[in-house]
Amino acid sequence: KPRVVSGVQPSADSLHLGNYVGAVRNWVDLQDDNECVFFVADLHAITAEQDPAALAQRTRTTAAQYIAAGIDPERSTLLVQSHVPEHAQLAWALNCITGFGEASRMTQFKDKSARQGAENATVGLFAYPVLMAADILIYQAHQVPVGEDQRQHLELTRNLAQRFNARFGDTFVVPEAKILAESAKIYDLQNPVAKMSKSAASENGLIRLLDPAKKNAKKIRSAVTDDGTEIRFDREAKPGIANLLTVYSALTGRSVPDVVGEYEGKLYGHLKVGLAEVVTETLDPIQARAQELLDDPAELDRLLARGAEKGREITVRTLAAVYDRMGFLPRL
Ligand code: TYM
């Protein structure tokens, strides 16, 4: 079976709708025909200053949301990145075959370091895409289901795999990004030309999976829409409506034209009310299941420990091959 690997950073108390629609939701079906590894990217969450007291809890909450969204810890491997030391070990090796200029060209680094101020950006933030490459290559992944914003990081991952293979002999599978065109980018409700993101300018632009239905419905009702009254899908002229239609379609599994057909001739407000219902119907069961899991943290931690054990069966072997090829003296 092909292997699939992906993860989300536990950098907030809840995932947002972009994480869900662009990534996690798409992982669920991949479990049928692939061998999947889904991890909580906690090592990535410290590239911006983190609150130590919050990090552990956010890591659990993120894992609980994976399961609540449909990731089955029996069929898939569900783990916490920091529980599997080979991620960080491989990252170091890959750092040493990554060009400084190459890493400097990562647009996410440029954006984030500009936002933090160049003086505050850390070496960790700079090396972040290389750690991401290690996350993928350590499992010999074939496919990586992510949103559009990770495309450049996947290109770097492929380049590093090919470079390593050429220099040291065939070691890594060269992975492919799996980016679903329709839902690859969910936009901020208040600024529908910027991606929905936890670091968004306005709190109202963001729908959180674990927020109360009322709060989310209110944000959807006040979403920025466009001039005119016509409901049709036009990303250029009507980015706000296009975004609402995208989310609607993704969450219901109905095509965009089908949804447009239902709302043709109706008002923007109707679409918003309809979407708020769809979001509530989707999130209610996820919230209930996540809460159950979080009520029993010992059981959740046990699941994660088992996941780390399963994951290490793969990662230990890859790292041994890497160290051997690179010429490290084997420890007796
Ligand atoms: P992160 O935590 O920023 O986002 C997690 C996933 O959600 C997707 N995403 C979106 N998709 C559509 N619309 C949006 N507005 C939106 N916002 C976020 C992201 O594309 C991603 O798939 N570096 C990664 C985490 C990571 C990773 C990995 C992923 C670390 N190692 C290895 C895959 C494989 C990140 O920061 O994602």
Distinct ligand kinds: tryptophanyl-5'AMP
Beta-strand percent range:
5-15%
Number of strands: 5
Average residue pLDDT: 96
Number of helices: 12
**Strand numbers in spatial order across the main sheet:** 1-2-3
Ranges with pLDDT <50 over ≥5 residues? none
Order of helices and strands: EHEHEHHHHEHEHHHHH
The biggest sheet amounts to: 3 strands, parallel
Q: Please give the share of residues in helix.
A: 40-55%
Q: How widely separated are the two ends?
A: 34 Å
Evaluate the radius of gyration.
21 Å
Task: Please state the overall shape, judged from the principal axes of the Cα atoms.
Answer: globular
Helix/sheet category = mainly alpha
Catalytic activity: tRNA(Trp) + L-tryptophan + ATP = L-tryptophyl-tRNA(Trp) + AMP + diphosphate + H(+)
Organism: Kocuria aegyptia
Enzyme class: ligase
EC number: 6.1.1.2
Structure description:
Its EC number is 6.1.1.2. It is an enzyme of class 6 (ligase). ATP binds at residues 9-11, 18-19, 147-149, 186, 195-199. Keywords: Aminoacyl-tRNA synthetase, ATP-binding, Cytoplasm, Ligase, Nucleotide-binding, Protein biosynthesis. Belongs to the class-I aminoacyl-tRNA synthetase family. The chain is mainly α and 332 residues long. Helices cover 54% and strands 7% of the residues. It has twelve helices and five strands. The strands form two sheets. It has a three-stranded parallel β-sheet. Helix 7 links the parallel strand 4 and strand 5. Helix 3 packs across helix 6 (123-137). The longest helix is centred in the last third of the chain and has 30 residues, at 297-326. It is globular, with a radius of gyration of 21 Å. The protein binds tryptophanyl-5'AMP. Residues 5-9, 18-19, 22-23, 41, 44, 132, 135-136, 144, 146-147, 149-150, 185-186, 195-197 line the site of tryptophanyl-5'AMP (TYM).
